[in-house]
Amino acid sequence: MSDFNRRKILKSSAGIAAAASLGVGTAIFSPLANAQTLTFKPEKGAKLRVLRWSRFVQGDIDAYMANVKKFTETTGIEVRVDNEGWEDVRPKAAVAANTGAGPDIILSTNDDANLYPDKLLDVTDLAEYLGKKYGGWYPAAEMFMRPDGKKWIGLALGASGSLIVYRESMVKAAGFDKFPTNTDDFLKLYKAMKEKGTPGGMALGNATGDSVWTNWLIWAFGGKLVDKNNKVVIDSPETLKALEYAKELYANFIPGTLSWLDPNNNKAFLDGQIGVTNNGISIYYTAKNSPDPKVKEMAADINHAVFPVGPVGVPTESHLFFNQMIMKYTKYPQASKEFLRFMMERPQFDDWLKGGGGYVAQPLRAYEANPIWTSDPKNTPYRDSVKNLRPAGYEGKLGYASAGAAADFIIPNMVAEAASGSKSPKEAAERAQKRAERYYKV
User: What is the pTM of this model?
Assistant: First the structure.
């Protein structure tokens, strides 16, 4: 829970005056719970440019653009939205931060905001307002966006859950009545499915979203990149056990996963080449809405499960996190804040969650009640992706080092090297240790 969520609600004229002193326009607090409103006064002649990651489900961008249009109609502010692949947003955002020119607002991934915190606009007032109004931010959202514990350098947008996607008929044919809940049985399932000619596979290339399963793997066996003091500890007995397991698991993968990026497992699954993988809800969404009758029929056979628990005995979930950053160089900081406020308010955010079919899970607790999570039981496992998320920098402090190490795919590369046999588990762990130490300098 954030510091703001532990404060008492502002009361009386003194509270209103304090809110007004923030210089953010008008703050009005109603006696009704969570009825407060906040608006930012846009600069005259403001025009905004937004760079965001490209959609994996059409409903996401359709609903997002409908909200953009609504914002323009409400405020008169023209908004240009550019869509780029995940792998392209990160370098473009870095260039913009370093040159001081480019989009006003950038929607990026993981804790990229920590790569250039001094280049981002302080949005503490907006973050605290939204947190108070909508039940509070989940801890993962707070950790990503408050690296110094004092201010917010961005807003969480949500997360695309990295869950197990599988064909029920193929899992049953392999001898399992329900999806395995522990790593031993998970390996047995992969072996059995390969023997049945319906193998599985997960991305081992530099896939921004789908390679996060490698974090789960390492954590499930007790390994971690750094300890609580940010000391690099990836070269450990626990990591070696995880990498030995990875070798056994990989032996049952469909060929080609070493070069898989984010689109590859979607295509392989929908083509019927594999019967189990990890992914967001986009595979199921695509099948349900496909014009191809054969693909549409597949949707009834698709189901989802959380990753199995490893020897550590607790869930170790890793998901692709999405952030929203306002660049400090923007000529229109008030208009930018007003845009993010508008997009995160219930009427717009609820519509966006529904439009995306559950592709993104909310960062604010109040949105757990969105009907998208219960209208189809197969959507429900994705609902708590942000709530259960472990940051990629676990178990250390988030900052430049954690963001840089994640962006450099140190964990996925280590797992790929050990799993494929290009390096021994020990060699792979030692290389990962050295690479990580370049970021986590003592």
Answer: 0.86
The domain in which residue 82 lies consists of 3-159+320-382
Count of domains for the chain: 2
Give yes or no: residues 290 and 415 share one domain.
yes
- 82 neighbors 52 (Cβ within 8 angstroms): yes
Let me know if residue 398 belongs to a domain.
no
pLDDT tens-place values along the chain, 442 residues long: 433 333 333 333 333 333 333 334 433 333 333 446 788 999 999 999 999 998 788 999 999 999 999 999 999 999 999 999 877 998 999 999 999 999 999 999 888 888 899 999 999 999 999 999 999 999 988 865 665 667 999 999 999 999 999 999 999 999 999 999 999 999 999 999 999 999 999 999 999 999 999 999 999 999 999 999 999 999 999 999 999 999 999 999 999 999 999 999 999 999 999 999 999 999 999 999 999 999 999 999 999 999 999 999 999 999 999 999 999 999 999 999 999 999 999 999 999 999 999 999 999 999 999 999 999 999 999 999 999 999 888 999 888 899 899 999 999 999 999 999 999 999 999 999 999 999 998 5
CATH number for the domain that contains residue 336: 3.40.190.10
Alpha-carbon separation of residue 104 from 67, 77, 114, 123, 361 (angstroms): 17, 13, 17, 14, 24
CB count within 10 Å of CB 421 equals 12
Q: Are 330 and 42 in contact (CB under 8 A)?
A: no
Residue 163, phi then psi, degrees to nearest 5: -115, 170
Instruction: Answer for the pair 385, 312: CB distance below 8 angstroms, yes or no.
Output: no
